[in-house]
Write a structure and sequence with these properties.
This protein has 4 helices and 5 strands. It is α/β, with parallel strands linked by helices. It has a 5-stranded mixed β-sheet with strand order 2-1-3-4-5, covered by helices on one side. The protein is elongated, with a radius of gyration of 25 Å.
Length: about 200
């Protein structure tokens, strides 16, 4: 009787764990010593928003992404949430899951949009971090967690690299100005026509 109760308790705990959304992922950071804070600033607001249809496990997922970004820029002060009148990095999460495909492999997908805006609301950058990982269904391994961790770490690395590329003080990098076509020729052509 005791063994049956223990078995049903373990099975119930396993079902509860499976119903809590995506598994927690291993922490990761990707700091670059030459970039202590994106855009040469010393502070940003960080707004991580779960846009998935099924938001189970949202808190731990948002916390992992927030922690990864903040620790990748150790010279930065990060305030939570959207920032009216403040420089803000927004991460909108679209996918964050791993599922077993035909009992042979775990297919993980992590996708989010990263947007950085200055205090006036002008967009400084916007890009996608979209990573997919396929992992064989190894026995004795938490394949769901491992595949999702790998996809998460790749997406985080792409995010940190993209934010690290922001120009100092958020000045947009515009292409080098090219002279107007025919501007110089038009003047000399007009002068030549006037002289003839």
């Amino acid at each position: 009787m005791r063994a049956r109760i223990l078995a049903s308790t373990v099975a119930g705990a396993a079902l509860l764990a499976a119903a809590c959304g995506p598994p927690s992922v291993r922490p990761a950071t990707y700091s670059d010593p030459s970039v202590s804070c994106p855009g040469g600033r010393n502070a940003w607001n960080l707004d991580v928003v779960d846009q998935r249809a099924d938001r189970e496990g949202s808190e731990k997922m948002v916390a992992a992404i927030r922690d990864g970004v903040q620790k990748s820029f150790p010279g930065c002060r990060w305030a939570p949430g959207p920032g009216k009148g403040a420089d803000t990095v927004t991460i909108e999460i679209h996918r964050f899951a791993s599922h077993l495909e035909e009992r042979s492999s775990w297919e993980a997908a992590v996708e989010w949009t990263v947007r950085a805006e200055n205090a006036e609301g002008r967009s400084l950058t916007e890009f996608q971090a979209n990573e997919e990982v396929s992992r064989p269904n190894y026995q004795g391994s938490d394949n769901e967690k491992e595949s999702l961790t790998e996809a998460y770490q790749k997406a985080l690395q792409r995010t940190v690299k993209g934010l690290g590329a922001l120009p100092a003080n958020g000045v947009d990098r515009l292409p080098a100005r090219t002279p107007e076509v025919g501007a110089a020729g038009t003047g000399s052509g007009s002068a030549a026509a006037a002289n003839s």
